[in-house]
Request: fold
Amino acid sequence: MSTSNRASNGKYLLDPAYHALLDEAPQAWNLDTLPAIRQRVHAGIQPSEPLRFEEHWVARAENEAPLRLCVYAPLGPKAGPARPSIYYIHGGGFVLGKPEMVDDQLAELAHSMGALVVAVDYRLAPEYPFPSPLEDCLAGLEWLIERTELLGIDPQRITLMGHSAGGGLAAGLAQLARDLGLPALAGQLLIYPMLDCRTGTPDSPWHNPTTGRFAWTADANRFCWASLQGQQLPSENMLGYFSPLLATDLTGLPPTFIAVGALDLFFEEDLEYARRLSRAGVALELHVYPGVTHMFDLSPSLQTAQCKEAVSQALNRWWLANF
Reply:
């Protein structure tokens, strides 16, 4: 098979564990289809039995509903020194999702790492465009920082984590936390983060025929970024918080772990963000997993197991450094 044919042959590139994706028709993403997409995704979220988390509520401005946080604690009685914590931001293209979408993973993460996991139920676009989702993420992080003693967590071992759009929000939040002078974060775990609003548009610098063919396409990406943006592009001083790859200054950010599949639409932007972090003097760990697409870790595979182990190792390393 020629090199050009291999680049366009999804079956050749795709790991056999993910061949079911070959039979999936692309989903149309627009304002007309979004309600049905939300209903389908949210209907698949099953409440945990027994309930794995406690709900906490953060007051917002007058006439606005309070912000919901889901707090997952390790099993067993609390003993010993203060725990580390993970502040988690869910994916969903900025337009759908809630913490319960990854409830099992968050509960397992809390138990396996002995950490308190706090997941934020931020407002969704397009009803609430930027900066509303990021403002919610900031409010939840400030709530966590202000209550470290009450929650029994170590203020020097707070780590950000997010998948996909949640990874993009986490990256923007890390920049914002730095600029606001919040206490230093132990690290940020960015799992196939959504970082560049240009990806999938004519203005994109990324033109890779092997990426974005499955699971998350350019069409979906364009719609979700347009939903987050709203009526106009954020001002220059806000652009990096909106689309983290477009930030002009990446110095002073916490140690960063990035994981992405080689066939993910975000492959190019995630690699470029990793390069820029390295050039800015940020401690960096980058993992590229062969033959897998966006959301690869939602399916059992060798790559999923490897990514899970790499995340655990990164957390342990950061927390040990700050203990």
Residues 259 and 287 are 5 Å apart (CA to CA). DSSP finds eleven helices and eight strands in the chain. The longest helix spans residues 302-321. The first strand starts at residue 53 and ends at 58.
